[in-house]
Specification:
CATH architecture of the largest domain: Alpha-Beta Barrel
Number of strands: 15
Number of domains: 3
Strand order of the largest sheet: 5-6-7-8-9-10-11-12-13-14-15
CATH topology of the largest domain: TIM Barrel
Number of helices: 16
CATH class of the largest domain: Alpha Beta
Radius of gyration: 22 Å
Distance between the termini: 29 Å
Bound molecules: pyridoxal-5'-phosphate, iron/sulfur cluster
Helix content: 25-40%
Largest sheet: 11 strands, mixed
Structural class: alpha/beta
Shape: globular
CATH superfamily of the largest domain: Aldolase class I
Amino acid sequence: MNYKSYMLNNFRSIPQVQNLPDDVIQAIDVVGNVLPFKTNNYVVENLINWDRVPNDPIFILTFPQKEMLLPHHYKKVESLVKNQASKSEIKAAANEIRLELNPHPAGQLEHNVPMIEGEKLFGMQHKYRETVLFFPSQGQTCHAYCTFCFRWPQFVGMDDLKFASKQAEHLVDYIKEHKEVTDVLFTGGDPLIMKTKHLENYIRPLIEADIENLRNIRIGTKALGYWPYRFTTDDDADDLLSLFEDVKKAGKHLAFMAHFNHSVELEGEAVATAIQRVLNTGAVIRTQSPVLKHINNDPNVWADMWKKQVALGCIPYYMFVARNTGAQHYFSVPLVDAWKLFREAYQSVSGICRTVRGPSMSALPGKIQVLGVSDIGNQKVITLRMIQGRNPDWAAKPFFAEYDEDAIWYTDLKPAFDKDKFFFQGELDKMLTPSEIEVDFE
Ligand SMILES: *Cc1c(COP(=O)(O)O)cnc(C)c1O
Ligand code: SF4
């Protein structure tokens, strides 16, 4: 299939869009000036059920919706668009609004940046001991943009991304020097937006360097969901699969961290064939998604998603909590509700699907999992634990917060039992400067 991408300037040419009510089209136009918007012909033709629009989950996943902006922000841009304001006027208003949406103004690739010989390795992050994140410079866009994505500032050009020169060489040197690193995770954007010949420039040196401590090469991608032809009929699909095979031949484990937000993305022949071809190379596919209001906040959707993933040969891995940025007000589900949803879905599937962990917040101190609501003594509390910690010693140690059914992020929670802080807080404060804001992998 030929790739056709749609953005603000050409989405009106989509035949199904032409049949939508005017106010829905208008909302795409208004919100799409502030938040990133990009979709493609596979999403439009195969994933969206147009009979269900505007309530279709995949439509909401890739098309901007009116309520994604706060009412006063919406009104402001709407009046500019209606009055045919100049591009620069609209852009100035959009930037003002973006700054109010917690966009990580310091640039999201500037935290947890490792150093080598006194040089900052931009395009890498090293937060958890075993795993280095690597952001290849050509992989910082996607086949379509998810409306919930916390990387939105980079897609609207707000973040001035920096990359180290000779990125691939530095990655090899860094992992060689850091024997504690067992995993490198390629992320973006979506690294599989890259042509195979570009991806190869990063992966081949890694396997040729034959680094003993490097065990796992991981690729974070949504290509299976948004463009499965990347693995089947694209010009360089076969080369991509050969590259994967070579990773395996070099004795490294190859893991796909695949993003699927709804079970619809697992239906149809294209994705099944793509998954099978990836698995045939010896790679393993693990899956993850946040819980999102309007898209998947339904235990049946999750149970269905996990069952379909397992049937196709994938391993359910993480359920996340929507992050505190962008249109969080639109997508967020309270922590207690996310846990109830997790529990209901988890209870309805067999053990083979229960490899999944969640709901988990990728937060400043670590990946914090909501274990559930407990009664301890006579007090109702929320039990949490870290799956990953900035200090590895923090992992797998339960801790408690006062029950709060409105909390949507760990920073909304108060420590239980009259403690003034959570057990990790003192150490965390010493590790970071106050200006450091959280920046994480999805
Ligand atoms: C989630 C995450 C990882 C990978 O964690 P795993 O639990 O090993 O999958 C690595 N680095 C960062 C910054 C992360 O947020
Ligand atoms: S969630 Fe992943 S695929 Fe979606 S826009 Fe963000 S980086 Fe791209």
